[in-house]
Amino acid sequence: MRRLPLRRIGLLLVAVAAGGEALVRLVETFGRTPTASLYSLIVPGKPRFTLRPNADIVVPERYGNIEYKLNSHGFRDREHSGTGPAQRVVLLGDSVTFGLGVRQEVTFAGLLAHDLETGTASRREVFNLAVFAYDTRDELATYRSEGAALEPAVVVLQFFLNDFAIEDHATTPRAPTWGKDSSPPATSSWPSL
Which residues of 121-134 are buried (b: 16+ CB within 10 A; e: fewer)? Predict the structure, then answer.
């Protein structure tokens, strides 16, 4: 007779434990930014791939999870208001300027923006147009399609040693870039500044 109540207590404990586990998992994931790979943000295109606008993901990195927030133009940068006159600085580059594996506020672009935009009497604005895995051709295409429309006072091109090894996309396409046409689109999607 005692076995029946013990069996019920055991089943009740298992049910409570399973329900508790489900509740903890639900609470942990509620409101969190999804975890994914940066490659899930790639939008194939010509002359270069771009990144999905307004994306917000967390990527497990070597030293912890890093949140990547992309603006409405698909760059790891804040939204720019485009109001009033400003001396604009356009940053072009690859993963170094993009800030791969680094919190956004301590990237090269983030630190430069903080120093130039808050430490000067004149209004300056830094636009980070860098994308991981870009080479010099991709950066030129980005400048032509996005950067030139900003009429920058200064353009900073971050060049890394692997940029010397640019392959001919016409004969050997390398992922994740596709295509070789570097002609700019007719219009820019940046606000009139």
Answer: eeebbbbbbbbbbb
